Amino acid sequence: MLRRVLYIDLGNEDAWVEERQDLFDQWMGGTGVGIKLLMEECPEGVDPLSPKAPIIFCIGPLNGMFPVATKMVATFKSPLTGELGESYAGGRLPLAARFAGHEAIVIRGAAERPSYISINNSDVKIKDATSIWGVEAQTAGMILREHEPGIGRRSIIRIGPAGENLVRYAGVVVDTYRHLGRLGLGAVFGSKKLKAMVISGTEHVEIPDHKRYREVYNKLYRTTVQTDVMEKYHDIGTSVNINVLNWLKGLPTKNFQSSSFPEAENISGEILADKYLFRRLSCAGCPIGCIHIAQLKSAFSTHHEFEVRKVSYDYEPIYSLGSNLGVSSAEGLLQLIDACERLGLDVMSAGVVLAWATEAYERDMITPQETLGVPLQWNNVKSYMNALEYIVRPPNEFYAALAKGVDYASAKYGGADFAMALGGNEVSGYHTGPASIVGQIVGVRHSHLDNAGYSIDQKAAKKQLSPEQMVDEIINEDNSRGVFNSLVGCLFARGVYTSENIIDALGAVGIEKTKDDLDSLGKRIFDEKYRFKTREGFDLSKVRVPKRFYETVSTLGKVDPQTVDEMLRLYRKKRGWL
Amino acid sequence: MADSSEAKVISERVSVAGQETKPKPKKRRRLKVAHPERCIGCLGCMFACSRVHTGNVSLRDSAIKIQTQGGIEGDFRVVVCRGCNDPPCVRACPVGALERKPDGSVVFHEELCTGCGQCQDACLIGAISLGRGSKPIKCMHCGACVAFCPHGVLTFEEVPS
């Protein structure tokens, strides 16, 4: 296997490859190598939007080799939180990197004028992107397809106007329907005048023992397609959880003022699947096909003239732009998702920011002068569409503040008690109980996917768990996900990849590891990430918990602040930080 | 290329997805792209092809190709050998490296191939392409791709004699 790092310097238009076997031996790949390279490349205290802040992409040893090992990780310093930025995406990106022969890509410096990077095997070029600067993300992809090689096996990742204009939660659109969405990688691209990156290649991977490889492949494939471990993703998709969480009183509604939404059914996975879903897609290398594409058809005249948009949807965007904004129609929801897609915004942060703004507007903390006459009201899709455009191209101070995230906006205008961010990152769509809150506070990137606290809460709803048991589960997930994210697998397939199966899969591609090796790797990766976080100023004891979390009933009833404090104390103790 | 252990592997694959399991059909069978519109673009067929025939992981070495038209927003095109009764690739080969057997199947004699690429040019659908060493990658209609298609895009058909 090629274990190479591709270095690209945008400033002096240079690129070179280094063999870093030691790095991969020690840190596996994916998020492990990603954090190590970030430590190497990112100067302490650097402005995340300065040329000195790097962008790092990593795949891992299982990408392209086994089913559902379909993610690539990006590490960077987040312009939203000012500390660890980490984001994952699938599509064709990991595969394209694999066959281009680069397990890691480091981007340094900033370009002089709008540019894009073209990687075709070892041929790396930095090309002029002036004519597509300002172009929406989807269109930019369409244009680049005409100019770059590798049709059918390449990946085109690009930013929209949000990234160019440094919206702190701008994402990077990957192959149209996938995203390196969270924590502002799009703004880091924008700060480097980097519009896009196109990767393709024709390398192959030599397998040491063909027979063993095929045996392990078959076993994992069978587990993926024939058992029920992934059924949820196969059928209705992640959006099946809208009705489930609504029923469990865990679906954040109107900025977490409620945990159930009377009109949830209208925007549920079931309704979307029955009435709007027209196609399913998969990331390359995954037989599940969880990418659900809705057709949004709307008339633009009375003469049967229609515009048709193809919109990908999942649970999180339905929460953030649906229930959390009180949006009760599927059409309205899909329009908002589509707007974020075109502009290149992270849907989750965008929705949480709009939800805070709506409540602040309702409470007269924000005036119509500030919103430029846009009535920010629940379910007012037209207003939200206008506001999203204004966030991306801020015409005044208010929208410029919204573009910096909900923590920044609430510090300026008030309403911190209902500014729904943890660790500076706008929260995900779960008000399930204390584990979800604590999980996002302590998580390395303050994401629900760091340790799935929401899932621990749901478990606790069935069988009571003590605060200590919850903390143990969070720590266990923190560490084991570090390993899985080094491979780099899709978290939806975590049920397929037991430790035993991971060891078998690694063995089949020539990497022998024991359970102890993996456990210690998971812990080392976590520690290294915390080293970066604290170096950049993160202090766990200072994380602000919006009061709203304690006011609204959750799946596990009202959350007691003392429970959260107690869990944080236990967490610190078990991590050896007391 | 496929020795007996390969054939076993292939038949295992065939049973994986619950498709047809006959390893040795009496009549010639060929692949059929029965439902291209059901393709989700997972590329499982391409990986299966290179895995079974080369043992390695490659997209380029696959005989079957999933092509995009306008990215994944567009429809996928499934490009695979149709097993023509009068194969233009065989006729185009100037050195007889591609040989049509009496049952209609086409075998590739690598040692005769000069890598001229005329077979590739002769196939309108692009089902034969040059791989490593400029040698054509010829579909053997083994069915590995059929077994690893999760959506029933591919199937076998018997060739009318």
Break the fold down into its secondary structure elements and pairings.
The complex is a heterodimer of chains A (578) and B (161).
Chain A (H helix, E strand, L loop, with lengths): L3 E6 L4 E6 L1 H7 L2 H12 L13 E4 L13 E6 L6 E6 L3 H8 L3 E5 L6 E6 L2 E6 L8 H9 L9 E4 L2 H4 L7 E3 L3 E3 L4 H7 L2 E7 L9 H17 L4 H4 L6 H7 L21 H7 L1 E5 L9 E9 L6 E8 L1 H7 L8 H14 L3 H16 L18 H12 L4 H6 L3 H8 L7 E2 L2 E2 L7 H9 L10 H10 L4 H18 L14 H10 L6 H21 L12 H4 L9 H15 L3
Parallel strand pairs in A: 1-6, 7-12
Antiparallel strand pairs in A: 1-2, 3-4, 3-6, 4-5, 7-8, 9-10, 9-12, 10-11, 13-14, 14-15, 16-17
Chain B lengths: L3 H13 L12 E5 L10 H11 L10 E4 L7 E4 L8 H5 L5 E3 L5 E3 L9 H5 L6 E2 L5 E2 L6 H4 L6 E5 L3
Antiparallel strand pairs in B: 1-8, 2-3, 4-5, 6-7
Describe it:
The complex is a heterodimer of chains A (578) and B (161). Chain A has 578 residues and is α+β, with helices and mostly antiparallel strands. Chain A has three domains: 4-200, Aldehyde Ferredoxin Oxidoreductase,  A, domain 1; 230-415, Aldehyde Ferredoxin Oxidoreductase Protein, subunit A, domain 2 (Orthogonal Bundle), CATH 1.10.569; 425-575, Aldehyde Ferredoxin Oxidoreductase Protein, subunit A, domain 3. Helices cover 40% and strands 15% of the residues of chain A. Chain A is built from 23 helices and 17 strands. Chain A has helices at residues 21-27, 30-41, 93-100, 137-145, 161-164, 185-191, 210-226, 231-234, 241-247, 269-275, 315-321, 330-343, 347-362, 381-392, 397-402, 406-413, 434-442, 453-462, 467-484, 499-508, 515-535, 548-551, 561-575, and strands at residues 4-9, 14-19, 55-58, 72-77, 84-89, 104-108, 115-120, 123-128, 155-158, 172-174, 178-180, 194-200, 277-281, 291-299, 306-313, 421-422, 425-426. Chain A has a six-stranded mixed beta sheet. Chain A is globular, with a radius of gyration of 22 Å. Chain B is α+β, with helices and mostly antiparallel strands and 161 residues long. Among the domains of chain B are: 31-80 and 139-155, Alpha-Beta Plaits, CATH 3.30.70.20; 84-126, Alpha-Beta Plaits, CATH 3.30.70.20. Chain B is built from five helices and eight strands. Chain B has helices at residues 4-16, 44-54, 88-92, 118-122, 144-147; strands at residues 29-33, 65-68, 76-79, 98-100, 106-108, 129-130, 136-137, 154-158. A two-stranded antiparallel ribbon of chain B has the order 1-8. Chain B has a two-stranded antiparallel sheet with strand order 2-3. A two-stranded antiparallel sheet of chain B has the order 4-5. The radius of gyration of chain B is 15 Å and the shape is globular. Mean pLDDT of chain B is 86; it is low at 1-20. The interface between A and B is large, with 46 and 34 residues.
